[in-house]
Amino acid sequence: MAAGKATIEEQLRGAIETMTRAERQLAGHVLRHYPVALLGSVTQLAKAAQVSSPTVVRLAQKMGFGGYPGLQAAVRDELEARLEGPLSKHDRWSAQAPKAHVLNRFADAVLGNLQATLAQIDQQDFDAAAQLMADPARKVFATGGRITLAMAEYFVTHMKVIRPEVELLMPVSNAWPPALLEMRRGDVLLVFDIRRYENNVLQLVEMAAEQGAEVVLVTDPWVSPAAAHARYRFSVQVEVPSAWDSTVAIQLLVETLMAAVQDLTWQTTADRMARLEALYERARFFRGRK
C-alpha cells in the first residue's frame, strides 16, 4: 500500500455520513470485526450484520470496488501487506523509485506520513487516552516489539519525570509474571506494534486485558491483532522508500501524548521536575559552564 493511501477501514469510517441506515449498520459490524468480517461470503456477512445481501453488494460498489469480490481482493492485498518483509519491501520501493535524491524522496514520504496520520487521529480518543495516562490512581506501563520497544523506552524515560508509577515491560515472557502481578484493574498499558506483528506482544496484551488493564495501542494502517483488546487504537503511517518502516509518525504521536499528559499534571509535574533538577545538580550529572 502506498504511503498515505487510505485503507479499507479508513474509507469506511470516512464514508459513514453518506451511508443509508442499513449501510451504516453493515459498516459498523465490519469495523468492529475488521478484517475478519470481510473474509466470508456475502451471505455470511449479511447474516452477521443483520442486513440484506444486496446491502453488502451495494456498499462494496459504493466504495468503488465494483462488487463484493473486488472488496475481498483489496482486503487480501492489505493482509499480504501486513506480512511484507524488508527484502520484498525494498524491491517494491526500488522498482518505483523516482530519480530524485533519496533525501528528498524519504523526506517527502515522511511528511506525507505525518499529514496522513494527523488527519486520521480521533482527537476525542487522543484526549481520553491522555486523561487515562494522567490519572494518578492508575499505573502506566509501556511495551513494544523488536523495533518499537525503543518508542516504549523513550516514552517511559520522559513519563517517569512527568508522573510516578511508570514502568517499561520488556517483551520477553519471563519478565511478564512479576510485572502483571503489579498490574491492577484500570491501569494503563501503552503498546507499540507494527508489522510484522509479534506473538509475544499479542500474548502480553491478552494477559493484561484479562487483568482489566486499559490498553492503548499504537499500530500501523494494517492494524495489529492486539487491537481486539485495545480501548483506544491509533494507526500511524509508516511506509517510506526503505526496507524498513518509519517510526517518525510514531515519535510524533508519543511526544504529543507526553505533552498532553504534562499539561494535565503540570502542578505536580513541575514539582517533580524541580526536585529532579536539584538531584542532578547535587550529583553534578551535567557538564556546567566553565
From TrEMBL:
**A Gene Ontology molecular function term of the record:** carbohydrate derivative binding
Q: Which Pfam families match?
A: HTH_6, SIS
- List each copy of the HTH rpiR-type domain by range: 6-82
Picking any one GO biological process from the record gives:
carbohydrate derivative metabolic process
Keywords tagged on the record: DNA-binding, Transcription, Transcription regulation
Look up the coiled coil feature and give its residue ranges: none
**Superkingdom classification of source:** Bacteria
* Keyword Transcription regulation (UniProt): yes
Entry-linked SUPFAM superfamilies: Homeodomain-like (SSF46689), SIS domain (SSF53697)
User: Could you tell me what this protein is called?
Assistant: RpiR family transcriptional regulator
The source organism is Rhodobacter viridis
